[in-house]
Amino acid sequence: MAHPPPVRLDRPVAIVGAGPVGLTTALGLAFHGIPFVVFEDDDSLSLDTKAGTTLPRTLEIWQRYGVADAILAKALRVDEIGEIERATGRRPFPLRMHVLGAETRYPFVINLPQHHMEPILADAVRARGGEIRLGHRVAGLEQTDASVRLRFAKPQGEREFEASYVLGCDGGRSTVRELLGFTVEGPSVAERYALIDLIVDLDVANRRDYPYLSYFSDPQEWMILVRHPHCWRFLFPLPADLDEPTAEDLRDKALAFIGGVGKVEIHNKVVYRTHHRVATRWRDRRVFLMGDAAHLITPMWALGLNTGALDASNLPWRLAWLLRGWATAAILEGYEREQKPLATHGSGEMADAARAYMAKRVEQAHAMTDNNWSNAYTRGLLGVRLDVDGAGAWSLVKFATEPPVAAGDRIPDALVHTPEGRETRIHDLCRDRFVALYFTDARRRPPIPANGSPALAHFAVSRWDAPLDSGLRDRALLDPGDRLFARLGVRAESIVLVRPDEHIAAIVPIAAGAAERAYEDVTGMTPP
Ligand SMILES: Cc1cc2nc3c(=O)[nH]c(=O)nc-3n(C[C@H](O)[C@H](O)[C@H](O)COP(=O)(O)OP(=O)(O)OC[C@H]3O[C@@H](n4cnc5c(N)ncnc54)[C@H](O)[C@@H]3O)c2cc1C
């Protein structure tokens, strides 16, 4: 199989902001061989107490970019998300993540504080030869047809930088967004949230057996409990008219919740305001907004950083296809079209549902059902359907167990077997290329194109092993028991075309040249 050529650029891509979205995007560019430099205002990575929970879809993206193992080595895996009625202890919405074992190699969420996560991402960026220039605050930008000139305030190094593209990952108060003149729309939520991190033994001396991530619902006062590798975090709503509590107040509130315990140490306290604000535009020619710079989402159900990770999954492969000369410039238009509705409505609705449920307005919690599988799928952000063809059919919520897939869905990371007998995951087949999966009967020697292009690979998928003289042994996958075929729910004799970001680009009947035509619909060019 041919490998993609390295991308040669006179001017690298500039990523503004070394938060989790900027660093994940940098890993995405490194993965696709695109030269880049990251510019960060601060003199160090952030030490603030922010995101704590990362969802399976983000782990899959980090796996693609080669950093998931390093993250997992420092994180706590969470098998069960507790949705618990505070007054009765009832658990009406089951959320055991292990039911996703056939769908993803990460059937769990993880808890890891953002300030522990960012150095792992930054080390991975540097290990790939990527540069992170600290102490570089972007203060100006000018675009020409061929480049973007960045100007820095308080430069530790240079005062200006000429980039081919600029990816604004500079957080909720984004300077890049301001320089583009884009506004944000949406409400600030009236209540604030207060969190207290306590170091306390709830495992042995004071056994509580709470799931490592638990949402305690209550009409008076809900609470979210997060067990971090180094502490227990208690998060409460703080009504707008109440004075800010002290750390001791919050500690006592937490103790009233969990009951008497022995030694307790206060580790940290934070009070913050919540928003749901999305930028009116996400792109101006060579400049893009990503992560919190494009969308500030209430961090309920861990939707802040994790929604930003979806941006970092979507844009790098598009840039790679354009810069390799494998796609027309129109490929970049899909980024905002696909990601913006997720942020404006999708994650927003999920955060609304979460707040409604926590305050016991269950009838408004539309994204929640009594189906463990669909709850786990939705909450893991595995149910993301992108508006791949502009028809407006995006969604984040799955209401049924194993629903048939459609164009735009993330393809499950199911197991199939190679002709050599190795087990392989579907996502591993899509590394930096499109993959056309032909659901067919390999005994009949279907005419499947040979694999010559680095941009598009073809595979027969069948429960019938390809006969040794079929000419298909280099491109046939065994699907024991038709498991994958049944899971996808597609018709026999269909092609499922999967993009490099593991989303389904199209589902079309098998015909001569059909996969290439579907590929061309996305890229505007025939496969190289
Ligand atoms: C208390 C709290 C708890 C949260 N919990 C969760 C959770 O559990 N799960 C979840 O998914 N999300 C959570 N979030 C949200 C999450 O922290 C954010 O969504 C995430 O940090 C966004 O990442 P980002 O990289 O887009 O932006 P940021 O993390 O804000 O990073 C932006 C970076 O850009 C830099 N920068 C800014 N301006 C410039 C400039 N002009 N030039 C150069 N650099 C610049 C900043 O210094 C910063 O390093 C939480 C947030 C808070 C506050």
Task: List the topology elements.
Layout: E1 13-16, H1 20-31, E2 36-39, E3 53-54, H2 56-64, H3 68-74, E4 76-78, E5 81-85, E6 109-111, H4 114-127, E7 131-133, E8 137-143, E9 148-153, E10 160-163, E11 166-168, H5 175-180, E12 184-185, E13 188-199, E14 213-217, E15 223-227, E16 232-238, H6 247-258, E17 265-279, E18 283-284, E19 287-289, E20 295-297, H7 303-323, H8 333-358, H9 372-379, E21 415-417, E22 423-425, H10 426-429, E23 434-439, E24 456-462, E25 476-478, H11 483-488, E26 494-498, E27 504-509, H12 514-523
Parallel strand pairs: 1-2, 1-11, 2-7, 5-14, 11-19, 23-24, 24-25
Antiparallel strand pairs: 3-6, 4-6, 8-9, 9-10, 12-17, 13-16, 13-17, 14-15, 15-16, 17-20, 18-19, 21-22, 23-26, 26-27
Bound molecules: flavin-adenine dinucleotide.
